[in-house]
Amino acid sequence: MNPIKKIFDLLEHDFSESGNFAKLAPLFDATKTFFFLPSPKTRLGPFIRDHLDLKRYMSVVLLSLMPVLFFGMYNTGFQSGLARGESLDFWSAFLSGAWVVMPIIIVSYAVGFFWEILFAAIRRHPISEGFLVTGMLFPLTLPPTIPLWQVALGISFGVVIGKEIFGGTGRNILNPALTARAFVFFSYPVTMSGNIWVAGADAVDGITGATALAVTADGGTSLTATLADQGFSLPHLFFGLVPGSIGETSALCCLIGAAILILTRIANFRIILGGIAGLILTALLAWLLPGTYGTWADAGPLFHLCAGGFLFGITFMATDPVSAPGTNPGRWIFGFLIGFLTVVLRVANPAFAEGVMLAILFMNVFAPLLDHLIMKQRISKRIPNV
Amino acid sequence: MEKITPSKGFKLKLAGMPDTSIIRLPRPATVGVSALDIPHIRPKLLVKEKEAVKTGTPLFHDKRDPDIRYVSPGTGTVKQIRFGPRRSLIEVVIALDSMDDFVEFDPVSPAGLGSLSDQDLIDRLKQGGVWQTLRQLPARDTADSSTAPPLIIVCLNGNDLFSPHPGRVLQDRVKQFEFGLAILRRFSDRIIVAARKSSMNRLGPVSERITHQVADIYPAWDPGAILYHIKTKAEENQAWYIHAEGLIRMARFLETGRYPVETMVTVTKGHDKKPHMITRLGSPVHLLAGNFPAGSMITTGQLNGRKVDPDTHLGFFETTLNILPDAPEDEMFGFLRPGLNKPTVSKTFLSCLVNREVQLDGTLHGEERACINCGYCETICPVDLMPSFIMKALHGDDIEEALQLGLLDCCRCGLCSFTCPSKIELTQILSLGMDTHHKDKQG
Q1: Cβ–Cβ of A57/B336 closer than 8 Å?
Q2: List of chain B residues whose C-beta atoms are within 8 Å of the C-beta of residue A36
Q3: Residue A153: inside a domain, yes or no?
């Protein structure tokens, strides 16, 4: 018999209803089922069931996050090396980045799981696998310089207010990871905006750590020229060797993640494609507007697509099935409007350099309404059977 | 002949297609009439234990309509009446004598059918215990003889993917099949005869009667699914349906004046190709199943049947047994494996790249979780429902909304539960909703 299985069998009694740690049963259960995929007999028909379960489902999302995670670690190290004027080789950049990023991820998971276990114990239900994704997404949206206590506070807000008070997984209106980020963003603007995007940069003077979206051109030069001047040329933005939140800088890695999610049908392609279409069309319209020379309205679709966190948001955040619409036309509209709102916020609102977070949260609120309208139309097409 | 090709349904290739050869099973020691596969019934027993019964003697009737009788498929003595929890009837078991003694009725020839009035015909079919082979959508209750159906659907294929081949069921029964259709024409002008595409090859003269050929995607041949694709107005929702076996049973009863006791059954077990079996109605499950490994689960339809105990007997409507293997040990890091041997309709295991016959065991492959609105149930539902939304409406006790969303179109195929990654018992929840609604309507 498997030795790990033996340990679980030995401990099983302590966590059972009559055991000493009955309250911690969800923790035991989550750990055990992590090691050994449970497969109880079907009680009710159909008697055969598909092999896909939520553990696999969420594992695929985590898999799709691996490119942005590893690139994020490398880029964090690379940027801080750049800021200190050192040129780091691949491994030392990766390791020094991982040294900064790993604590943020560990804090996010540890604090988040504390809340998950607490609520699962009180409500007597198993721990849902959804948090595996939330706990990873949230750190990837943060700047590498974020203080760890803010990570803890943010994920607490995201899990408790964003999810658990609505009844837990599957019942939340807003994406919990984005809710957490929005909380930190509005509560601690000092650590979430300005020159905070490069870890370990404060040692050197004269290094600006601003992101591409904070750049505006003054007097005469075009925005794209100014961007290129500051190191934000289109290839740089596409491959992602620029300052920014840990996971969002590389458009390429986000697209790899999107490809994994779309090929495995875990994310709905309608949201991603709708979002990209919405962004491109709106950016084109903004580009055609007169008198916007030198601002982000003048940037054109490709810069809007590659700069900032749009691709990260539309791929990993907007496709969260719980907070997105459940009908296909609804998903197209939802995605499209996220793209549209992202550009509108970037162009029209100088208070927020980045619009995608607010665009997704805003559309999360409207997802049930979209569903309601689509359902009404679907019902009218059915031959009634009442 | 029209073709019905639904885009949604079950597209995995399951192993277990039975061989088309036929064997005749030995006479069983006992036969049983089960109450578990009869929808909505409130049975009232008409016999006691140790009482002698003839073939055709009513054993119990439906309290809601005492004329609907379930009769003994053999001659002998009532050996046992089995009850379940709260004294609900499970089955009546008859120990068979060596000879059959029938309850006799006057035979009716196809030519003589015209001289029988509608009411006489209905009464005769009810007395003989064969009327209930006609069922009525959407609740799938016994057909209500006081109403005229807008159409009658004759389904040549059974409920399971591997139900008996209609070519085998109707072999040498073409005359009875025609007679059956003549009986149905007394009730409705519009008779739909539907068969699976893969069944068309061996039908012989019956194939000329087929009005609709349905694709080989489960559950396209289910009466509910057929109706969903052909209906044009709301009145058609009350359609009746009958399976090929039932139609033959009805015709043979009228023709001979005796309760027909033969039926054809298929048994599926992994990659075994078992022959079609001719046996007596209500045969013991262990006789049909033969040897099977301990821990196996036996069902009368792996997606839409019921679980049966090997010591009980096959039901009135059932023609298939599936023997599902026991689950292997809980797998270490099961969710991280590439999954070449893990059949799925999703694209999350490597198995989706290989197109081969697969076998599934009778386990959940996961644990129940909250609905995450992923939409897998919608992408597989053969009648375009959104099961997760209906489930939420039912959880909120909003039956009106559930009905508006099309709850009564549900054909209980089981695919939503099959595919749900949160392992929610959607089929059960929707079925309960439909049954409650049906009960309320009956008052």
Answers
A1: no
A2: 330-332, 334
A3: yes
Residue B396's pLDDT is 92
Q: Provide the number of structural domains found in chain A.
A: 1
Using a CB–CB cutoff of 8 Å, tell me whether B86 touches chain A: no
Q: Which of A9, A12, A50, A269 to mutate to test the interface with B (most CBs of B within 10 A)?
A: A50
Q: What is the ipTM of this complex?
A: 0.91
Residue A50: its chain B contacts at CB < 8 A? 343-346, 365, 418-421
Q: Is B279:B367 a contact under the CB 8 Å cutoff?
A: no
Tokens of B98: 């060596």
Residue-wise pLDDT tens digits, B216-266: 999 999 999 999 999 999 999 999 999 999 999 999 999 999 999 999 999
Sorting pLDDT into bands at 50, 70 and 90, what band is A209? Answer: low
Query: Which of A2, A55, A129 comes nearest B332 by C-beta?
Result: A2
- Check residue A123 and give its pLDDT: 87
Which CATH number do you get for residue A81?
A: 1.10.3430
Q: How far is CA B234 from the centre of its chain?
A: 25
Question: Is residue A253 one of the residues assigned to a domain?
Answer: yes
In a domain, A137, yes or no: yes
Q: Which two tokens stand for residue A291?
A: 């008198």
Query: Which range (A290-294, B2-6, B432-436) has the least confidence?
Result: A290-294
* Residue the block writes with tokens 């039956």: B399
Q: Which residues of B touch A46 (CB under 8 A)?
A: 302-304, 414-415, 417-418, 427
- To the nearest whole Å, the CA of A325 is away from the closest chain B CA by 8
Residues spanned by the domain of A94: 54-375
CB B162 within 8 A of CB B266: yes
pLDDT beyond 50 at A204: no
pTM greater than 0.90 (yes/no): yes
User: Which residues have a Cβ under 8 Å from the Cβ of A213 and sit 6 or more positions away?
Assistant: A296, A307, A308, A346, A353, A354
Take residue B38 and report the two structure tokens written for it. 């009869």
Residue of B nearest to A48 (CA): B362
Restricting to B residues 370-429, those with a Cβ less than 8 Å away from any Cβ of A are 370-376, 378, 384, 386, 388-389, 403-409, 414-415, 417-423, 425, 427-428
In a domain, A5, yes or no: no
B268 in contact with chain A, both atoms CB, cutoff 8 A: no
**Do β-strands B320-324 and B262-269 pair in parallel, antiparallel, or remain unpaired?**
parallel
